[in-house]
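May I ask for a protein sequence together with how it folds?
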Amino acid sequence: MKSDEQENKKLSILTSFTDKHAYCEKVKMANFTQSMRLEGYDISVPSKIKSTRERNALRMQLIRYYQQENTEKV
């Protein structure tokens, strides 16, 4: 049997909201990936955007795309 001390070392303590949110997102993506695998789909999890410059550029690109799409529908 494992001692309580060894078991506690395996579990990281989630003390802040940011840690808890990151953990939940990681588990959610892992569950999604496995669910899709069971359904027969082979998906790849998108990589996180590393810099804020890349994230902002992508954000602006998506905003322009959807603004253009919405104006065409009216």
Observations:
- The chain has a mean pLDDT of 79.
